């Protein structure tokens, strides 16, 4: 796996690079801003890019903008955005712009190297990863018109696990059920959310978007 790291805080960037290197992941480039990121992606053709959501010059959401540009110009490159903030709207914007191969993690989460490496591998495989803190907050929020209202408690657990980037097998292990049972739950989730099977749609991503939009 070949990765580019964009993070303006030197110590954080060095820590991320060290974790990746220790995991056998090649860091082909690293930088403190997002201005030259597209050029470097074109030059190095990495499998994924890790970038902070707030970067120079304004420290607003330059990383998110860069992630969307990468998604349009290099759809095969996974994007993992790191943030200090629990902002579901940013996660929604990221995944809407990068429907496959995008992740949004809180920086606190990367203190566990296994979590960072696992999320990175998942986005490289075209999956969607949303920080569990955001997922839990969204699942517990009360809404007047809730698109998830018809889901059973177990189906909501399955959907939350999907949003975190877990495969069906991983969900089965977490919930101590069979893979076949997870498949049945997923079928019910798709039906209740009105997500019909189509070669042009990734229903797991659409289900996650339904959660983020709720």
The CA-CA distance between the termini, in Å, is 34 Å
- Main sheet specs: 6 strands, parallel
Low-confidence stretches: none
Q: Architecture of the largest domain in CATH?
A: 3-Layer(aba) Sandwich
CATH fold description of the largest domain = Rossmann fold
- Binned, the helix content reads 40-55%
Radius of gyration equals 17 Å
Structural class: alpha/beta
Mean pLDDT: 89
The total number of structural domains is 2
Gross geometry:
globular
The helix tally amounts to 10
CATH evolutionary superfamily of the largest domain: Response regulator
Highest CATH level, the class of the largest domain: Alpha Beta
Percent of residues in beta strands? 5-15%
Q: Could you give the count of β-strands?
A: 6
| SSE series | EHEHEHEHEHEHHHHH
Question: Characteristics of this structure?
Answer:
alpha/beta; Rossmann fold; Arc Repressor Mutant, subunit A; six-stranded parallel beta sheet; 10 helices; 14% strand
């Amino acid at each position: 796996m070949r990765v580019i790291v964009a993070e303006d805080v030197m110590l954080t960037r060095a820590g991320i690079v060290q974790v990746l290197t220790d995991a056998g992941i090649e860091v082909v480039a690293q930088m403190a801003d997002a201005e030259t990121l597209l050029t470097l992606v074109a030059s190095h053709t990495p499998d994924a890019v890790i970038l902070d959501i707030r970067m120079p010059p304004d420290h607003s959401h330059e990383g998110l903008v860069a992630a969307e540009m990468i998604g349009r110009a290099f759809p095969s490159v996974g994007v993992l955005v790191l943030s200090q903030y629990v902002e579901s709207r940013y996660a929604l914007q990221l995944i809407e712009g990068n429907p496959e191969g995008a992740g949004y993690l809180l920086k606190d989460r990367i203190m566990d190297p296994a979590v960072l490496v696992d999320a990175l591998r998942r986005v490289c495989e075209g999956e969607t990863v949303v920080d569990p803190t955001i997922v839990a907050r969204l699942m517990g929020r009360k809404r007047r018109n809730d698109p998830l209202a018809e889901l059973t408690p177990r189906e909501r657990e399955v959907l939350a696990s999907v949003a975190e980037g877990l495969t069906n097998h991983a969900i089965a292990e977490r919930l101590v059920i069979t893979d076949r049972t997870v498949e049945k739950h997923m079928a019910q989730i798709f039906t209740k959310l009105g997500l019909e099977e189509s070669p042009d749609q990734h229903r797991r991503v659409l289900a996650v978007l339904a959660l983020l939009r709720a």
